[in-house]
Design brief:
The chain is mainly α and 280 residues long. It is 71% helix and 0% strand.
Length: 280
């Protein structure tokens, strides 16, 4: 009795440009890696610290106290009809999110060099997970804002329902700038020293400790070339309500710059992505 052996043959098809065509689908297929990187960074950030995740509350709170004393009590700057601590913290939330995203994104590819040089996956996952980790800090810091509102018996108006829209703009600004810095830092390691300077300098030229209404009207449009100005003004308009106003031409300019930053950031990241494994 003879037995017949059936051998099935599988064809391996190598198609030029297939990786590029499947890139955005691969991001979804590698979503578990995204979850892993984000969760790992959240755990590592406050590991072996005495007070752990409370640092996400302490840092913006202390900054808010300093700005309130300097600009609110000493300089007596206007507060748009709201308690000055709430004015400051409504700007601290998007600014800290943006600043943390820049810092985390710029080092994200370098910090995962071993993974990038050995395994294929869409590299866009790495800086995106860094922005998500910063967003977790943003959500935690929001507890302070709720506490300040309760302390001062401050009740927001209907504008608060528009806040998710401005959060999305802050996310887009953080993502766009983060992708640029992540890409540039792989090739030019000087950016590890430049980014802290950008963050520190940006804190003082952005309306975090003061209202942008103190900027002379003739300079308001030019001042809005800083895209985070529109984000901060949007947050204040949504949270403070009342006397808070939105300088529409400047906001439209900032919004346009944010989307240019995001689109160009994705374009430049994708353009340089194929060289990361060789350079890093």
């Amino acid at each position: 009795m003879s037995s017949t052996k059936i051998v099935s043959k599988q064809e391996l098809v190598i198609e030029a440009g297939r990786t590029e065509q499947q890139y955005w689908k691969d991001i979804w297929r590698y979503r578990e890696l995204f979850y892993f990187l984000a969760w790992r960074d959240i755990l590592v950030r406050y590991k072996q610290t005495a007070i752990g995740i409370a640092w996400a509350l302490i840092r913006p709170f202390l900054t808010m106290v300093v700005f309130t004393v300097v600009f609110g009590n000493l300089a007596k700057l206007p507060s748009q009809g709201a308690p000055y601590p709430i004015l400051v913290f409504s700007a601290m939330l998007p600014w800290q999110f943006f600043a943390n995203s820049l810092s985390e994104c710029s080092n994200s590819l370098i910090g995962n060099a071993n993974l990038i040089s050995k395994v294929y996956f869409p590299r866009l996952i790495v800086p995106t997970s860094a922005v998500v980790v910063s967003f977790v800090d943003f959500m935690i810091s929001g507890i302070i804002l709720l506490g300040l509102m309760a302390w001062y018996n401050f009740v927001p108006t209907w504008r608060i329902v528009t806040l998710p829209f401005f959060i999305a703009i802050a996310f887009a600004a953080s993502m766009g700038a983060g992708l640029w810095l992540a890409s540039l830092n792989v090739k030019y390691r000087d950016f590890r020293y430049i980014v802290p300077f950008i963050v520190q300098f940006g804190l003082y030229i952005s309306p975090v400790g003061f209202s942008s209404t103190i900027v002379p009207q003739k300079w308001r449009f030019l001042y809005s070339l800083n895209p985070i100005v529109g984000v901060i003004d949007g947050f204040r308009w949504a949270i403070l309500g009342g006397e808070s106003s939105l300088y529409l031409p400047g906001f439209v300019l900032s919004l346009g710059l944010v989307f240019v930053l995001l689109i160009s950031g994705v374009w430049y990241f994708r353009k340089t992505e194929r060289t990361f494994a060789d350079i890093i």
